[in-house]
Structure formats: structure tokens, C-alpha cells
Specification:
heterodimer; A: 659 residues; alpha+beta; 16-stranded mixed sheet; 15 helices; 25% helix; B: 299 residues; Chitinase A, domain 3; four-stranded antiparallel sheet; 12 helices; 4 strands; elongated
Chain lengths: 659, 299
């Protein structure tokens, strides 16, 4: 135990040393005695900084910088035919195909269509379901016993009758209700081991440090009662290390549906493999109030240990994906006119239980961040201290999430004239129905990593230096400190000032100096081939003096010379250039780049708070509009045809010194 | 005495009986007479325990192990019952599973024959572009913000360009133009990499620029830029030694596919394939019956 901690500590120290050495070298300073570079603003004062970043460095102002200069974009949540439901849905692409596609190669989709990304991705995690991992025939036909069950017989008939998609939905529902028959591939069987080894082999074959990172991972799909508590598990290490374990499943006796058991597995895995793992939860919006509990979970009251453990393993949350965006909900944030974005709030994952309003608070990222502060005051630790990323959850092996190049969530949702009108989820018992058109072309994970490698990206994820996008590849900077001033927004190198005077997204501020309020340097650059930006906002959450969680949205930079009123809001919309008929827009409104320094106008040094940035694009056509244009068919009434894509950064937290 | 014994019919009977018994004993198939025993060997119990341990990172308790064993027994009992009922026969799912197993196993067999250097060199010669080192450029850029300068942006850029031409390469440009999050300098990057930052048309323009002087203005989707290409490396083909792993990966991928196809064709050759299509109705398209004929010839 201590040995492990020492290794851990040594690694962190060596990392700090590298950063420090590079900083000093870059500044031409070889003096010793500088305080350790850290993400704590408190340990860096201005005089020190001027030494580290002297006014007259070497000729090239860019030399010697070791902080991340360009964000890396990827997907931490992609399924292939190895996932039981994906296979039954008709996915045929394997992990190898998935990595080839993400690296920018043109391949044939599951439905035989040629498909290619506009630009390669920088990294990818193939995260197939750990339960039943392997080919779907391993699930469906691996054991004749299966066919002696009424379920097996039903699926068999459905697949034989060409209704694979219905069988797939039924498999998901049965899985949710722990009604899977015997014959399901489980760890320890050779079929299972083969699938895990194939997954590892694919990642090893396509991992190409410096150019493309192929992570090893899987999805742990806790779904009891249809309530989504899924997590993706990502390995920092290599194939040899990942081969020492087999994925954790949810079905007893080998697995468990309780996240606490997953965390135990993660701890044991780190010990056994001598590498690190992290878990990323997703789709709280389909958990029916269980994703971010406040009182108890799995029959146990929340306590300090729960908070510490969850915060240790779950440093990120997947806030946007094909099954809806879960940053904020209009019911919870009535004053936030941008909260109503790609919302899925009809029920849980299989539609077996309808949603009630009281569940929402425990499902959405913003309310979880707020409740995390409340819990921290109560338990002494914040279980919901997460950064944000987006990912696909596509079950096609294709991480194709641009509105104009969207290949759907499942194989039957690959481009076709039918996908505008087909039903995705239909639960006749509850009447919950979700159409294919409601599936979102979202999102990607953006990571400020120092280089494109498993280690660097993983470490950036761990320090939460990440942001989520709903598809476009905009670059977003967000720094917090106590000394940013208006001049910094005009600095030639905002990142250099940002790192020097503050902490990046995902970081912590503590102990405000007397009379000072947190200040933030925030900047956003549009996607090189994407739409202009409408505005940058800062979302603040805090716990007031009565212990109640509060939230407020501020506009901090807006395009087109619009005004930000005294209440911190710009009430003039950016406009709209979308031509739905042609599925086009123009960058004649908005701005390619926005930057601002913002100071919290209502800061109380004694109150816990968090701040995160939200960047909004100008309106553009939704994938449904491209479908109408390209297939020449009609959308159903009520289909959303345009949207304002966005990015969400990881928060920066403020904790009072003596809470 | 012995002779007499040999003539004894009872002895004949006993010997014959023993032979018949032994024959029966060694030729009886389990299918014909189901074996009434299920043995869970210590080896397979160990396997169960290991599997449990691999997920839970601890050995199963005695109770858990009993549960695992019970489950394995149930597995075997029902599996045999299903086989006895012939549930594996004529079943699409089982057939698909068998097909997949076959494909899986034979695909792996192809991998065991490692490619020789000649194979790989041949592959590299045939697909040189896949492994080429792309030409790369290092550049600096000065940005002119259209949001701030409007139509004046490109004119301002032109004016500055004239001054930079006069000043030569020693000019300190770090404070010129407008501040931006776009990188002021890019280390050696391929056209594709430049395109990811500045957009495609910018990258294409820069690719044609003469190094060693300021050029432009070049338009990107962000605004206008003056660009200085400070270094340029030629693209080149890479020798096998440099790209061996990648070539081998691509070679194996292609080889697996082609061998699977060849294997299938060879297997198929062994059959006379008869396709009995429902009779084509009058007016139905001719090519379909043509293709049916081809199939019948086993192509």
C-alpha cells in the first residue's frame, strides 16, 4: 500500500520537476529556490512569475513553452460489434476498424457506405460493454441452452425475421431488468477472454504516440431497473498491463451493479497492473435520479468514504453525447435560456419508468456540481468534483459526430431516408417513445495535454484539464486566479499569462486574499472549418449563507458589439443565417474568436463556489436538416432542424480557507 | 485337457460373449447411450476460481465457489439436454456462430505465417504513399482580425508586408498584428496538420509559399495572415527499416482479408451449388435470371 503510494508520489514529483525544469530552462533561468510550479494559485506570486516569464526572454516568444498549446480532440466512448447490443443492432465494424476510422482513414460503414472524417481525431477509447463482451452471436448463439429459454427463442425468431434492431432493444431492456438468460459470455470463458484480447490488440496496433492515441478501455454498464449508472473505464497503461485483468462486469456472481464495487475493482487493478485507471460516468439524464445521489445509494448513507472514493476515481463526467446533453435542464435553471439543449427527459434508459421532475436535480451536471459543494460542507469531501467531456456512445464503430457527417448512434441509424421518421425507443407500457431524430450528433472530448500520448492525455484527464464539445472542435481556454486584469485579455499569449497567473480549468482556488475576488481569463477560438461564436458565458454555482446551493449565468464576451447589461446578461440574440432548405449558414455574424477577463461581481470569500465557461456558437443546421437536403424527404412535425453548438469547460472551484 | 476345453461349447459361448461385450464397451458413442456422469474436475474448479479472482481480485469464498460449481453443473446438464433434443440442428443462430468460429479460427491461422522482408518490401513498393513522410513546413504568422479592422484588415496586412520586406528577416514581429489564440509559430508540420489549425485553403496556400520571406496576406476562416515559412523539409519515401511495424500491420490486415476470400472460394469450389429460384415471371428483369445461372455454375 505504502509502496504504491510512494511510486505514485514519485511519479507526481518527477512530473512537477519536468515542468519546473522546462519552465526555468525556457526562461533562461537556472536558479534554484523557485516554489514548485503547481496548479494551486496560492503558491505563485507575481514577482515569482515575472522571473519565470521575464519580459525579455529569448528571441522566440514561443520557445521553451511546455504547457499545452493546442487541444487534442477524441472520443472516450465508442462501441463496436464487440458490444452485445451493437452487434444485435447490426454493427459489424470491430475495434480495429474503429481505430482506423478515427485516424482518418476512409472505411465502409456497417451499412456498406463509404465514410471518412473531415479531420482525424487525436485519440479514441473503444469502450465496449464488459457484460457479454464479444461477438453478439456469442451472446445469442454461444450456448444452445439459450434457445431453450423463451427469451432466447424470441430473439432467435426476431433476428431470423430480420428484426435485429428489435431484438437489440429487447436485449437492452432485459439487461436492465437483470433478466438475461444463461449463456451470456462472462469473464473467465475463452470467448470472453478472446474479445478482451482482441480489444487490447487493436489498441496496441493503432496506438501511435505523437500522432494518434489508442486507449484500452471498456464500459461497465450498470443498468438495474433500466436506470443508467454506466461508466467507461480507461487504462493509462499498455496491453501487457491491461491483460493482467479482465473487465469488471455487472452481472452477479462475477460482477456487481454498484459503482462502489467498480471502484474496489479499480483499486485492485491499479495494484495488480502497476498502471492507472479512471472511470467516466455518463447519461445521468437516463438514471432517473440515481446518478448523483444526495442522501443514500445502494442502501448505504453517503459518507466521507463515498465522497473520497468517487472523487478519486471519477475525475470527469461525460456531459454530452448522442443520448442527450446533460449540462443543465430548463426546469432546474429557468433563467438560463440556453439550458434547453438536446434534452432527453422522458424516462430512464429503456423507458420503463417515466421521469418525474424531482429526479432531475440528481441527474444533471450543473446541479451535481452544486450539490457537491453542499456535500463537501457536510461530509468534508466533494464526491462530484468532476471536469466535463463529451463523447459519442455510438454503437457503430464510427466516431462521426459532425452535423454534416453524422453516422448515427446505432447501425440502423446510419444515413438513410428512413432515419428521419423511425422510432428509436418505444415502451408501450409507459408510452415513452423516442424518435431517431432526437438522437444528437454529439460530442467530443477535448483535452489540454502536453503531447499526444496515452500518458499525457490520461494525466490531463486526471487533472481535469478538459472541455466538452457537442461536435465542433473549438479551442477553449479558462483560467482562474486573483490577479487577472483587463490587460491580460490583450496579451499576445493568453495561455502563458493564464498559466502564470492562475490555474487552468479543472483547478482549485483557495483562500482569497483580503478584498480580492476571483478573476478569470477566458478565451475561445472557433473550429477552423466551423461556425463563428455567439458568446462566452461563465456559469457560477455556490452555497449561500443558509447552506442553499445557488447558480447564475453571466455573459462575459459577446460577438458583434452587443451590450452586456448591468445584470451581466446580453439579451440580444446573435441572429440567424441558417438556410434550412439548403442546409447552409454563413459566418457573417458572430466572431471567430472571443476573449475576456471577468471578475466575479458577487463574491463572498467565505462561501464555496465553482465556475465554468460555456461557449456558444451561432446557429447552424442540425443533422436532420442535412438529411432533408440530401435525401429530399420530409421531417416529422416538431423535428429540431437547427441548433447552437457549444463547449463546456471543466470548472474551477473556490474553497474558503476556513469553511 | 486343453484340447477338450477348446471344444467345449460353453467356453465358445463365454469367449464370444466377452468379445461382444468389449466391442460394445469401446464402440458405444455417448450420443447413442448418454454418459450418466458429469465430472467437474479439480482443474475446472481451479479455472472457475481463477476467473472469479481475475474480476474480483480475491479468491471466492467457499460459498461462492459452491455457487460457481453448481452453475457449471447446471450449465452442463442443460447443455446436454438441449443437445439431446437436437436444439443445435438447423438453427440460424448456431449456424452463424459456427461460421464465425470458423472464420475466427482460420483468420488467426493466417497470422501465424509471418511475412518475410520480401513480402513487406513488395507491399511498401506497391503502396509507397501510405508510408511517405509528408513534406513539412515551419511557419510564423501575423494575424489581422477582421472583427476589429473590418475591410481594412487585408489592406493593413499589405502595408505591413511592405515594411517587413524592407526590414528583412531580423524584424521582431512578435508584437505586430492582432492578438489571437491561434499559434504565432508552428513547428515543422504537414499540410494536414496546418489545415487542422488554420483550415484547408490556408494550408494549401502556405504549401506553395517560398521560404525565407514574409508572404501574404492569406485568408483563413479567422481573418487575414502574413506568413513566414522559416523551414521546409522535403517529403520522402521511407525505407522498410523505418516503417516495418506499420507495413506489417497493413500487410496482415490485407492478407487476412485476401486469404479469407481465397479460402472461401476454395471451399466453395468443392460443392455443386444448385439454386432453385422461383420461376421468373414474365416481364421480370433478365439480368437476374442471368446471375442465377452464374451462381448455379459455382462462380
Amino acid at each position: 500500500m505504502t509502496g504504491r503510494n510512494q511510486v505514485h508520489e514519485a511519479r507526481r514529483n518527477s512530473h512537477t520537476m519536468i515542468v519546473l525544469t522546462a519552465l526555468m530552462a525556457g526562461a533562461g533561468l537556472m536558479c534554484i529556490g523557485l516554489p514548485a510550479y503547481s496548479h494551486d494559485a496560492g503558491s505563485m506570486d507575481k514577482a515569482t512569475l515575472e522571473k519565470v516569464f521575464p519580459t525579455k526572454p529569448g528571441y522566440s516568444p514561443y520557445a521553451g513553452r511546455n504547457f499545452p498549446t493546442l487541444p487534442l480532440f477524441g472520443d472516450t466512448h465508442l462501441h463496436t460489434a464487440f458490444s452485445m447490443d451493437a452487434g444485435a443492432f447490426g454493427a459489424r465494424l470491430t475495434p480495429k476498424d474503429a481505430y482506423r476510422f478515427a485516424r482518418g482513414e476512409e472505411i465502409k460503414s456497417n451499412s456498406g457506405q463509404p465514410v471518412k472524417l473531415s479531420r482525424p481525431l487525436d485519440f479514441l477509447v473503444v469502450a465496449d460493454h464488459s457484460d457479454g463482451m464479444g461477438f453478439f452471436p456469442q451472446l445469442m448463439g454461444g450456448d444452445p441452452e439459450l434457445l431453450a429459454t423463451s427469451q432466447g427463442r424470441k430473439w432467435y425468431d426476431e433476428i431470423r425475421g430480420g428484426k435485429g434492431a428489435e431484438a437489440a432493444m429487447d436485449i437492452i431492456v432485459s439487461f436492465s431488468n437483470s433478466r438475461l438468460p444463461k449463456g451470456f459470455p462472462t469473464p473467465g470463458t475463452s470467448a470472453y477472454r478472446n474479445a478482451w484480447q482482441e480489444t487490447i490488440k487493436a489498441a496496441e496496433a493503432y496506438n501511435d504516440p505523437g500522432r494518434f492515441t489508442a486507449f484500452i478501455g471498456y464500459e461497465w454498464t450498470s443498468n438495474t431497473g433500466g436506470n443508467n449508472l454506466h461508466r467507461n473505464v480507461v487504462f493509462r497503461g499498455n496491453g501487457a498491463q491491461a491483460s493482467l485483468v479482465e473487465p469488471f462486469t455487472t452481472l452477479r456472481p462475477l460482477g456487481s451493479d454498484n459503482p462502489a464495487d467498480l471502484w474496489k475493482w479499480m483499486a485492485a487493478t491499479e495494484q495488480k497492473t502497476n498502471t492507472e485507471v479512471l472511470a467516466i460516468a455518463h447519461n445521468g439524464n437516463l438514471s432517473n435520479g440515481l446518478m448523483f445521489p444526495m442522501v443514500e445509494t445502494f442502501g448505504k448513507k453517503l459518507d466521507r468514504e463515498y465522497a473520497d472514493t468517487r472523487a478519486k476515481w471519477e475525475r470527469l463526467y461525460e456531459v454530452t453525447q448522442t443520448k442527450g446533453t446533460g449540462e443543465a435542464h430548463p426546469f432546474l435553471s429557468p433563467n438560463d435560456e440556453f439550458a434547453n439543449f438536446e434534452i432527453w427527459d422522458k424516462g430512464n434508459l429503456d423507458g420503463s419508468v417515466p421521469k418525474s421532475k424531482d429526479m432531475l436535480e440528481f441527474e444533471y451536471a450543473r446541479s451535481a456540481l452544486k450539490n457537491g459543494l453542499v456535500l463537501e460542507a457536510k461530509l468534508g469531501a466533494n464526491p462530484y468534483k468532476f471536469g466535463m467531456i463529451g463523447s459519442s456512445d455510438a454503437h457503430t464503430g464510427l466516431s462521426a459526430l459532425a452535423e454534416e457527417n453524422f453516422f448515427g448512434k446505432t447501425a440502423p441509424q446510419e444515413p438513410s431516408p428512413e432515419r428521419l421518421t423511425k422510432v428509436f425507443i418505444d415502451n408501450p407500457k409507459t408510452g415513452i417513445k423516442i424518435m431517431d431524430w432526437e438522437v444528437g450528433a454529439s460530442g467530443y472530448a477535448a483535452v489540454w495535454a502536453t503531447e499526444n500520448s496515452r500518458e499525457a492525455i490520461f494525466d490531463a484527464m486526471k487533472r481535469r484539464e478538459t472541455f466538452a464539445t457537442t461536435g465542433p472542435r473549438m479551442a477553449v481556454r479558462f483560467f482562474g486566479g486573483f490577479d487577472f486584469d483587463a490587460k491580460d485579455a490583450h496579451n499576445r499569449m493568453p495561455a502563458a499569462v493564464g498559466y502564470a497567473k492562475g490555474v487552468p480549468m479543472g483547478g482549485d482556488l483557495t483562500a482569497a486574499p483580503a478584498g480580492k475576488s476571483p478573476t478569470f481569463l477566458v478565451a475561445a477560438l472557433k473550429d477552423a472549418i466551423g461556425a463563428n461564436l455567439d458568446r462566452i458565458q461563465v456559469v457560477k454555482g455556490w452555497v449561500d449563507k443558509d447552506g442553499k446551493a445557488q447558480e447564475r449565468v453571466y455573459d462575459v464576451a459577446v460577438s458583434g458589439g452587443r451590450n452586456i447589461d448591468a445584470d451581466g446578461r446580453c439579451k440580444t440574440p446573435v441572429g440567424n443565417t441558417v438556410d434550412l432548405e439548403d442546409a447552409t449558414w454563413t459566418n457573417t455574424i458572430g466572431a471567430p474568436e472571443l476573449i475576456a477577463v471577468w471578475k466575479d461581481p458577487q463574491f463572498d470569500a467565505g462561501q464555496r463556489a465553482f465556475y465554468y465557461a460555456r461557449v456558444i456558437e451561432i446557429p447552424t443546421p442540425r443533422w436532420t436538416a442535412y438529411d432533408v437536403k440530401r435525401f429530399g424527404n420530409k421531417a416529422l412535425p416538431g423535428t429540431r432542424m437547427a441548433l447552437q453548438e457549444r463547449a463546456y469547460t471543466a470548472p474551477i472551484w473556490y474553497t474558503p480557507s476556513k469553511p | 485337457m486343453l484340447k477338450r476345453l477348446w471344444r467345449e461349447p460353453l467356453v465358445h459361448f463365454l469367449i464370444l460373449g466377452a468379445v461382444v461385450f468389449l466391442l460394445f464397451r469401446f464402440t458405444a458413442t455417448p450420443g447413442a447411450a448418454p454418459d450418466g456422469r458429469i465430472v467437474i474436475s479439480s482443474g475446472s474448479i481451479e479455472q472457475l476460481a481463477t476467473a472469479f479472482e481475475r474480476t474480483w481480485q480475491r479468491p471466492p469464498t467457499a460459498g461462492e465457489l459452491d455457487g460457481l460449481i453448481e452453475d457449471r453443473i447446471k450449465d452442463e446438464v442443460l447443455y446436454r439436454a438441449a443437445l439431446a433434443m437436437g436444439l443445435d440442428k438447423d438453427d440460424t443462430v448456431i449456424r452463424r456462430r459456427m461460421r464465425q468460429k470458423y472464420e475466427f479460427l482460420t483468420e488467426d491461422a493466417a497470422v501465424t505465417t509471418a511475412p518475410s522482408d520480401r513480402d513487406l518490401q513488395g507491399w511498401l513498393d506497391k503502396h509507397p504513399d501510405k508510408f511517405r513522410v509528408e513534406p513539412k513546413m515551419a511557419l510564423s504568422q501575423i494575424y489581422f482580425d477582421v472583427t476589429r479592422r473590418g475591410a481594412q484588415a487585408s489592406k493593413d496586412a499589405r502595408t505591413l508586408l511592405a515594411r517587413l520586406d524592407a526590414a528583412g528577416s531580423k524584424a521582431d514581429t512578435s508584437e505586430l498584428g492582432d492578438a489571437t489564440m491561434l499559434p504565432g509559430e508552428l513547428a515543422l508540420s504537414s499540410v494536414g496538420e496546418i489545415a487542422r489549425v488554420f483550415g484547408d485553403s490556408f494550408a494549401q496556400t502556405v504549401a506553395r509559399m517560398e521560404p525565407g520571406r514574409w508572404s501574404g496576406p492569406v485568408q483563413s476562416s479567422y481573418g487575414w495572415h502574413l506568413v513566414y515559412v522559416s523551414a521546409r523539409t522535403q517529403g520522402r519515401l521511407r525505407p522498410l527499416a523505418e516503417v516495418r511495424d506499420e507495413v506489417q500491420r497493413e500487410w496482415l490486415t490485407a492478407r487476412r482479408r485476401s486469404e479469407a476470400d481465397a479460402r472461401y472460394r476454395a471451399l466453395r469450389e468443392k460443392y455443386e451449388i444448385v439454386v432453385e429460384r422461383p420461376r421468373v415471371q414474365q416481364g421480370a428483369s433478365a439480368p437476374e435470371s442471368g446471375s442465377a445461372a452464374k451462381v448455379a455454375r459455382g462462380q
